Structure formats: C-alpha cells, structure tokens
Amino acid sequence: MPEQAPGDPDHTSLYPHALSPITINGCELKNRIVRAAHGTGLVGGGMGPRFLAFHEARAKGGVAMFTLEASPVHPSSLTRTGGEGMAAYLDATRSGWEEVLRRAHPHGTKVFQQLWHGGAVATPRGGGRSWAPSEVAEPSTGRLPLAMTKGMIDEVVESFAKAAATCRDVGLDGIEIHGGHGYLISQFLSPLNNHREDEYGGSLENRTRFIREILAAVRSEAGADFPLGLRMSATEEAPGGVEPADAAEIARGLEAAGLIDFLNLSIGSYYPSDLGTAAGMHAPHGYELPYSAQVAAAVSVPTMVIGRITTLAEAERIVADGIADLVSMVRATIADAELVSKSAAGLASAVRPCIGCNQGCLTASVGCTVNPRTGHEAEPAFTPAAASKSVLVVGAGPAGLEAALVAAQRGHRVTVHEAGDGPGGLTRAARRAPFRAEIGAYCDFQAGELARLGVETRYGSRVDPALVRREAPDVVVVATGSAERRDGIQRLRPLTPVPGHGLPHVVTPVDVLSGSVPVGRQVVIVDDIGNAPALSVAEYLLAEGAEVVYATCERVVGATSGSLQSTTYGRLAKSAGFTEHVRVVVEEIAADRVRLRNLDTDECVEVVADQVVLFTGFRPERSLHDELVAAGLPSFLVGDAEVPLQLDFAIGSGSRLGASL
Question: Which of 77, 155, 198, 532 counts the highest number of beta carbons within 10 A?
Fold first, then answer.
C-alpha cells in the first residue's frame, strides 16, 4: 500500500459509506468493496502460485471479500472448455482453498466460494450431451442438451449440498450459488430454456423449485449460520427471458423463505445483447444499475451490484444512495490491486484506471492492458536500480510513458521528449471516436504520475542525434510509435499500389480522427486490416453526418478487432448511412468513385465517393533509432516503434524495458 506523507490526514472520511463495515449472517466485512467471481484462467492445474498471488495482491490492496471463480459441483458440469479446474468434488481442491485462506485472512479479507453448474453451456466429464432443464438449443453453439430427469435433478441438488459442506469444513467464509448468466439454475428460471411440463416448469413457482431445493439442501448441510447467497441476472437481455420484475419476484420469494443471506445482481446470459456481463468502454459506468437496482430494492438482505464501477468515489455514491450494500469492482481491481488502499490513503489519482478495453482481462489467462503485472504477481516485483542512470525517452505515447514511469520508479533520472503538444501518441486521435474516449485515459494517468515523481516532460521537442549528444544520457528509449502506411499496397495485392491512392481526397483514419482533414459527405472506408482504427473512423464519420461505405477483404466487418467487433458492428449495422462490402479489394480510386472487386465472384462494383479513408496498417517509426545506433549511441526500441500491435503490447514493452534498465 502506498505510504501517506507525514502529517497527511486520514482520507477514509472521503468514503464513509464505501469503507464502512457490514455483516452478512455473522460474517463481518471490513468495507463494502468486494470482488465477484470471475474466471482467471489460472486454475487449469489447480490453485497454483499465480492464482494464489493474484488473489493475495487484491487482499493486500484492501478489498473486503472476494468470491472465488465458479467451482463445478458435479462431473456433468466441467468448465465450458472441458477442464475441471477447482471442482468442489475433487480432494485436491480442499488444499487449494486452505492456501487461499492462509493468504487472504491475514489482510482481513473474507473468502467466499461460488458453486456452479453450467447446464447446457458446460461440458460433461467424458463427453456426451450436457444437462439442461429441456432439450432447447444452447444459444452460443446450437448444441442440443439432454433434458434432465427427476433423478438427475436430485443428483445435482445433492452435489450442491455436498460441495457446501466441504466449503464450510475447509473454513471458507461463505458460499454463493450461481443462478445467473444462462447457466443451469438460470436455465430453469428462464421461459426461454425451461419448457418442462412437470413440477419444475411452467409457472414461476415451478421454475423456481430447482433453486429453492438447492438452497434448502445447502442450508441444511452448511448450517443456518453460514453465509449463503445467490448470484442472479436481473435481466437476461433476451426477448421472452427473465426481466427485472421477474427477478425481483424470485428474489422476494427466496428471501421470504429464509434461503438467502445476500443477493449478487448482474445481467446477461448467452443470448446476444448490446451490453452483457462485461461491457466495454461503449457502456457507461454503472451500466447494470438501471436493471439491478430494481431487484435490489425488492429485498432487505444485503445486495451486491457490478458493472463498470471503476473508482471508490463511484462506489461511495452507490452505497450512500442506498442502491446496494456492496459494490463489486472486478476489472477495476484487475487494473490496480491497490485501488481501495490507495484511495483510502488519499491517493485516488495514483490508481491505474480501468479503461474498459477488455483486451487483457477477458483473455484465456487473466491480464490487463494498463497493468503488465496483473497475472504475474508471483514473479519478482520491480526492484530499485543498482545504479541510477540518466534516461532520455523519445515519445510520450503509451510505450514511452510506461518506460519512463517504471524507470523513474526504480530510481533512474528520466526526461521525456515529445514532438507534439501533449501525451498520448495515437490514442489522442483514437479517443475522439464515439465510445472510445477512455482509450487514452491511461496515458493521462501516466503523465500525471510522471509529474508527481518530478520527471520533466518536454513537449514540442524533436530529438535528433545532435540533441542526444548534447544531453549525453546513459540510455535512449525510442518510443516514436508508428505511422499509417500511405503506399497504397493491399495485403492481398502486394505487387501493385492501388491506382489513385495518392489523390488528395485519399486519407487515413488518423487524418480524420485528429481533425486534420475535413469530413467528406460520401466516404468509402477501405479496411485492409480489420481492426479498431477503421471501425472507429466509421463511427466518427457517421456521427458527423457522412454516408459511409465500408469495404474490407475480410468476411466480416472488424474481423480482427476482438471484443470490439460485435458491439461496434452492431451499432454500425443499425445506422441508416452505413453500407458494407465484404471480401473485396480496391481496383482503382478515381476522383469521385472507387471500384471494388469481389474476391469470391470476381465481379466489380463502383461506389461514389468524395473521400476515401484507406487503411492498410502501420509502419514503425524507427529512423531515429537507426541513426542513433549508426552513431554508436545507446538506443532501445519500445512499443509501435518496435512492432505496431495493440495497446497492451505497447504498455507491456515499455514496462519490460523500464524494468531492465
């Protein structure tokens, strides 16, 4: 935890509600900030060093409680990919739980375990059909599950109870039953998946029978004094599915029966939606609250909410306003494990901001774009430099700023030179696109931290070998980024540039987003790469009133843009001024039109255009590095200047270099 300066006041008074204790059925939490269960990808071989260090770091950072990720209760429900992970029915899981407790409890952090059955989404041990309430196609795969018999239902109920008893015997502090997100219990609750005609289907009372039996069996095995809660979706975000009014009625009934001690509210399922369980920066902070607040208001047991809540100030408002009793901050504490302790110490500005990019936290093994240490907490942390060096960093983009920040934190004397008038590099243009404003927020943070550390940043400073000789640094870090290619070469037509690519109305995404060129009225975007810049400029142009024709050689718009693709394309497709041509290359650009050739049919089509945005990727800007090396000066490349990739690579490469100096 960061130390307060001598004489600094206690800043916990800034968050009197968020940092106040609360008791759940005899279990006292030291504050209201918790971490809901989430997959880490770190338990394939059990709860090993990386998994333990990841959670211990967040316990040290001040969270009051975390719920460990879904533990399968029955062999018919392994993880979606078939692994058993931390299955409750395996003896090896007990020792893992015991070690987690040894790591968390000394920091005053409680540990709950989520018990789970995936139903139609899961993979049974040994293969075969998944189990579900009815033979209804699973929405993400189309596979037909096996409709459960009464005997299978009873077997699963018993497995939840046995798992709960084990959790209590091990010494865990509480249990959460996963009843949301389109998994087995949610499938029983939902009219979309539950078509049964027996006592488990039809009416809401019948559809809740399965969860009532599970909770009653768990209560019987674990004891009335053991904290027991339910995670549920306030809305499935699917036509005909569970809505907030239904969820509220379900929750009221479970509370009235004395079956739950707390309620964890989320949204979403495996049906496609605009938001879902982990919406990116296109969603506002607290985006789930309009749904979850309706259900939270229906019960009196402690309630937990989630959904892009990224600062302790946001959490304070939620608790103070009575919306919920507990606030889960998962991605925010993935970005900075010390979010709570830093904020409580009056250092909220020193908290690494979660920017909602979903590039690292939703991958197979947990990481974070803005925090290269996430997922690697078991490895040695940065150590002070053996000898302080003078370090000259060229470029105030994300890679250069990160290299400067880590080097300064280790005790080096750092100066940053930037040719432009502010920090951010290419993120300065990218953040001007709709729904992308936060993409540069981490660069703002980096610049602020460097100022706090006393690092000088010289804007409007162009570096050449002569300047380097005058400054005589021990090390030069070249973080000059990359520039969009303007050679007109398409990747599927590498021999010949596009005729007309040099015409004055042919521009790049950065040209448009930076405001350096006026916006056309009829614009053709040629996306040869399939990732974020072309998607972003399309949204920007549409917002400016342009008609946009999107042409790509890929089979879908935004094919390589990861989690950004589905949400952005959904908005583009709904725009009246948007037209797409997939599987095409450009044959020619003329003054007022573009000729496209379909790669499958070989047919050509001409599209009217008064502006063409030609995006064929980026080229590293490494000329300064080459000059310095040729002159015998010590130079290292980072970020796009080394290889143009995504933001997580840029920040990670800067961090690694700063740690190596």
Answer: 77
Q: Is residue 608 within 8 Å of residue 467, measured between CB atoms?
A: no
pLDDT tens-place string over residues 531-585: 899 999 999 999 999 999 999 999 999 998 887 888 899 899 999 999 999 999 9
Res. 8: pLDDT tops 50: no
Angle at CA 509, nearest 5°, toward 504 and 511? 55
Helix (H, G, I), strand (E, B) or coil at 522: strand
Output the pLDDT for position 5. Answer: 37
Task: Using a pLDDT cut of 90, give the percent of the chain over it.
Answer: 89
As given in the structure block, the two tokens for residue 179 are 């009843």
- The residue among 226, 190, 230 whose CA lies nearest residue 67 is 230
Q: What is the pTM of this model?
A: 0.94
Which entry of 15, 183, 270, 540 is annotated as an active-site residue? 183
DSSP 422: S
Q: Are 522 and 609 in contact (CB under 8 A)?
A: yes
Cα separation, 612 vs 405, whole angstroms: 39
**Phi, psi values for residue 578, rounded to 5°:** -110, 130
Provide the 10 A C-beta neighbour count for residue 562: 17
Alpha helix locations (H) across 594-638?
A: 623-630
Distance CA 650, CA 646 (A): 7
Crossing angle of helices 564-573 and 532-543, rounded to 10°: 30
Closest CA to 546 of 569, 514, 512, 570: 512
Helix, strand, coil percentages, rounded to 5, for the chain: 35, 20, 50
626 touches 499 (CB < 8 A): no
pLDDT at 4: 39
Annotation says 183 is catalytic: yes
Largest Cα–Cα separation, the chain: 84
Decide if 443 contacts 423 (C-beta within 8 A): yes
Q: What's the rounded Cα separation, in Å, for the pair 61 and 51?
A: 16
Percent of the chain with pLDDT over 70: 98
- Identity of the residue numbered 185: I
Residue 123 CA to residue 610 CA, distance in Å, equals 53
* Poorest-pLDDT segment among 69-83, 307-321, 361-375, 486-500: 69-83
The single residue listed with the structure tokens 């008791």 is: 23
Structure tokens at 660: 């190596």
β-strands 174-178, 146-147 pairing: unpaired
